[in-house]
Amino acid sequence: MDGTVDAPGPLRILGLADDLTGAVALAAELTGGGLATPVLRAHAIDAPPEGRGVVLDTNSRRLAPSEAAGVIGRIVEALRSRIGPETIVIKRVDSGLRGPWPAELATLSKVLERAVVAATAAPALGVTVEAGVQHLAGAPASASHYALDGESFAGDALVSAMPAPAMSISIDRLGEPAFPETLGPLLARHRALVCDGSTPIHLAWAARAIVRVPEVIAVATYGLGRELARAINEGQHEPAVVQAPVLALVGTDKAATTRQVDDLRSGGWTMVAATHPDAEREVARRLLRGERVVLEVGRGGTGVRDPRHASEVAAVGARVVAAVPGVRVIIIGGETASAFAAAAGITSIEPVAEPWPTIPVVRMRAGAGTEVLAIVKSGAQGEPWWLGHAADTVVAWPMPESRSVRRMPRAFVRHR
């Protein structure tokens, strides 16, 4: 032994956030996805950090664009020895697009000589990207409180804020099986790609493609970091948690349910009325492209749901469940649940967990080995956020092999 110590190898993930809350959130995502990642204050770096990943707080949210770009340049030089071809650099931006992030991203792309892939949807926060434009609660970011709170705002058109030339990637194209193989050639012709998205599976598709391309910068808000960590750790570029499609069947006009559905709408869910002339095909198509869908009773001229159409919701829902493999179902309303069981030919219903009092996760069985994992609840219960939380729960829950009733794992419990 000559007493020398090998220098650390390249980082797998280098995250950059313009404030500490964003840095901690990104690090938590990466750690939750299986890549333990500490947070360091960028101004205190005097040597490249150890480990596979690190997130740096650049504390640049309120800096002028030129100053923020200078901070990024100094960080890259300090970490140059730890940035290799396989290092994924994540630029974490504010969900409302505040701060000088376009200047920071331009500097990153220039000094690292890398192209950019942005997937800035944050379904958990109600943030979506449609045709390359950032939306919050269904409206463009420029109409949100973020644009009015006094901090610098870069606008909601992501494509024009990216290093040029840039283009938008539709959800349909993102979900194509061959998209990961076409990403490299696309980046050879474009400096930046902006991925549309509204659900966790859209972020998983983007992550699956990003990890296959060397020397890339990923732009994220909240959600992409976790999927990147999962894709890296899986090695086969698939998310660790099965992202099953989710269908909510709403056959009630109760006030609690109305508030919950409105919350889903603002979070990017697709609404389809059971009275739509092609409801079954429309719901199936959207589920298969990764969207989360609410199938609801029709509305009259007053805009109020008509509970008499609950049987229509159940009938369409039953046909969709038979057509879409692995779909998870949330059924709201007792009449809707009974009608669905009859329409789907359900022969047995087995509780497998009770995450909330009186609201179980159940396994429904029909003939020919058909099974569906579902949550059944009263239309009169729950806070406005509850349906979104239930969807995340039923997606993450594995199809059980035993018949024992279990309490929800603590990781799934949401404290409010």
Distance between the termini: 56 Å
Q: Which whole number gives the mean pLDDT? A: 82
Shape: elongated
Poorly predicted parts = 1-6, 236-242, 300-304, 401-416
Secondary structure class reads alpha/beta
Radius of gyration: 23 Å
What's the main sheet like? 8 strands, parallel
How would you write the strand order of the largest sheet? Answer: 2-3-1-4-11-5-10-9
Beta-strand residue fraction: 15-25%
Which oligomeric form is depicted? Answer: single chain
In short:
The protein has helices at residues 20-32, 65-78, 101-112, 158-161, 171-174, 179-189, 200-210, 224-234, 255-266, 279-288, 310-323, 334-343, 386-396, and strands at 13-17, 39-41, 53-57, 88-92, 115-118, 127-130, 133-136, 139-140, 166-169, 192-195, 216-220, 246-250, 270-273, 293-296, 328-332, 346-356, 359-366, 371-377. The protein has 416 residues and is of the alpha/beta class.
Structure characterization notes:
With 416 residues, the chain is of the alpha/beta class. Helices cover 33% and strands 21% of the residues. It has 13 helices and 18 strands. The chain has an 8-stranded parallel sheet with strand order 2-3-1-4-11-5-10-9, with helices on both faces. It has a 7-stranded mixed sheet with strand order 13-14-12-15-18-17-16, sandwiched between helices. Helix 6 crosses helix 7 (200-210). The chain is elongated, with a radius of gyration of 23 Å. The N and C termini lie far apart (56 Å).
